[in-house]
Amino acid sequence: MIKLIAKRLVSMLVIMFIISLIIFTIFDSDKMKAQIATSELGGFQASALIKNPEAYAEWQEKNGLNKTYTEWASGILKGDFGHSREKNTDVGPLLAERLGNTGILAGLVFLFMIPIALVLGVIAGMKEGSIQDRVVTFISVLTTSIPEIATAVFLIVIFGLFLKWFPLNAAMNSGWDWSALVLPVMALVIYDFGYVARMTRASMADVMQSHYIRTAVLKGLPKKRVILKHALRNALIAPFTVIVLQINWLLSGVVVIEVIFEYDGFGKLLLQAALFGDVDVIQAATLVAVFVAVFSQIISDVGYTLLNPRIRF
Amino acid sequence: MNINNNVVEKTLMQKLTSLKVTFALIFLMWVPLVAFVILGGSPSNADYNWLLYPAIPAAVLLYLICMISWRESWIAMLGCTLVFFWLIVAVCVPFLPLIDPNKPIAPYVGIMSEKKDIFFWLGTDFKGRDMLSRVLWGCQRVIVWGVTATLIAYIIGAILGLLAGYVSGWMDEFISFVCNILLSFPIMVLFILILTFMGASGFNIIVAVTFASAPAIMRIVRGLTYDIKSRDYVFAAQTRGESPWYIMVIELLPNVRGPIIVDACLRLGYTTVAITTLTFLGLGLQPPDPDWGLMIKEAAPQAKLLKFAYMLVIPSIAVSTLILGFNLMADGLREMSLRD
């Protein structure tokens, strides 16, 4: 077990190292620097600046673009993520605050999505091909087919404009407001639950056909007991992996939803930085996103081996 | 007599649904459409409309072929109908009697109402452009870039997967490692990174989609190849002394096609979502030509009243139906392949 965790951690470090190298090289390239100069100074001044090597070097120095990889990486390891030109603050605290906001959003999504998905999946998988199975399958195909933007639009129109139950956006200019989070969370839950529900359904249907369930049924155990005591425990192993890996998926969806609802989270920060050319923010946000994704993968692997009695080290 | 008739009918059907005819029709439909979009055919530029003449009958025939060969599964037929509705619109749209989608006429005209002696089925947007023609024109670029990007991602992913699975050894290790690195990125983050670096355009979307999708495709193809590699017919080909490329393309590829086609339908849906989303975020296709993501983006600040919500809802419904079509097609095909 420890060997497995150690192996996964080492591979995570290697991946993080390579990805940091890629991210650094992308933003260290001349093309990217010229692009940043253009976005900051305008095309005419930027091209004049680039033709003058001394002034260009000075400009790079001022904007912290002339760091070597070791300088940059050691800064990151010490917790110095650089300086945001757009917001004129240090990236570290900014990113921490935004990640906190996104964490609240993602936490609420998981809180609602997991029970809904598991219950629907188990109900559908209990009896393959029954009406309940068909209904759940159809709903999950339908909801996962509607992209997040469209889900968000429909929710805004129905609950925000027509019924006027919830605020249209989650910008929260006048303090924290939980009701503003309802629509973003709902949009993400609707988009995400279908996949987990289908995985649970497949796993449940698989277990229901196994010999030990047949034995339990033939033994005359009540159906409720067969499902709750015997089937459920084994059926939930596979969905666990999917749920943890869903974090990676959620990070993508969060970007879109945060932009639509103007919620001050990590995804909106990343997009604004990308559109503005705010290098330090893009680098830091990408690294954090990859770290979360890789780390969740490790949790999923380790958790799977812990849960599955057939795999032992 | 009856039996004879049946035989004739069957061979005719088989002829129509044979792979060669289907491929020829796909080619006939697809190449003109791509050429039309790349050469700059647009609502204001009718010079290349002639390119689309062969594509229209090809698209209709393809639709009929798909409906006939998938008639066992109504889910697949429904999905196919949704997808082909937009495909046929994409090839026909220059010839439809539509108002120029970029021409401002009268702003904020509601659905099914008349203004300036023109009847607007779906109203007009905040700039006064006809929504109906914008929605119909909007499907063209999404479909062209979405399908092309998926196709290229597939070609690259399949080559890598066949190499990793068939050659194995250090090649497998290397390819798998590179793919693992790419798969560690959340997809949207990878898209944003690539498009910030390369700039926003249709071609760069293809590059971004390839980077994001090819690793996952490679994993699927690699797994399937591992599974099939030890079959007798592969050994037979090896004994005949065929080259590895021949074995990979002629022996292995056709036998892994079933799961790949299902996955391709799903992935077409993902790519369409990605392109619409990226355009919405301002990183994809650029104005002024109509596009669904762009329509949502432009209407979002305007539509704060229920009266104007149609500006957001119409493109959202359009994109949802296309993606639903791809997903239902995938579902139906999977169901059919399980039944066999």
Give a written overview of the molecule:
Chain A is mostly helical and 313 residues long. Chain A has a single domain, classed as Orthogonal Bundle (MetI-like fold). Chain A is built from 14 helices and two strands. The longest helix of chain A has 36 residues. Chain B has 13 helices and two strands. Chain B is globular and about 75 Å long. Chain B has a two-stranded antiparallel sheet. Chain B has a domain of 202 residues: MetI-like fold (Orthogonal Bundle), CATH 1.10.3720. The chains are: A mainly alpha (313), B mainly alpha (340).
Which labels suit this protein?
heterodimer; A: 313 residues; mainly alpha; 14 helices; 1% strand; B: 340 residues; MetI-like fold; 2 strands; globular; disordered N terminus
Give a short synopsis of this structure.
Chain A has 313 residues and is mainly alpha-helical. In chain A, 79% of the residues lie in helices and 1% in strands. In chain A, a hairpin with a 4-residue loop joins strand 1 and strand 2.
Question: So, CATH architecture of the domain at 138-339 in chain B?
Answer: Orthogonal Bundle
**Separation of termini of chain A?**
6 Å
CATH level 4 superfamily of chain A: MetI-like
Instruction: Give the strand order, joined by hyphens, for the main sheet of chain B.
Output: 1-2
Oligomer: heterodimer
Roughly how many Å is the radius of gyration of chain B?
23 Å
The beta-strand count of chain A equals 2
CATH fourth-tier homologous superfamily of the domain at 138-339 in chain B: MetI-like
Main pleated-sheet profile of chain A: 2 strands, antiparallel
Secondary-structure element pattern of chain A, one letter each: HHHHHEEHHHHHHHHH
Backbone structural class of chain B: mainly alpha
CATH class of the domain at 138-339 in chain B: Mainly Alpha
State the low-pLDDT regions of chain B, or none.
Answer: 1-5
Per the principal axes of the C-alpha atoms, what is the gross shape of chain A?
A: globular
Computed over alpha carbons, the radius of gyration of chain A is: 24 Å
- pLDDT below 50 for ≥5 consecutive residues: which ranges of chain A? none
Strand content of chain B: under 5%
> So what's the overall shape of chain B?
globular
Q: What is the CATH fold-level name of the domain at 138-339 in chain B?
A: MetI-like fold
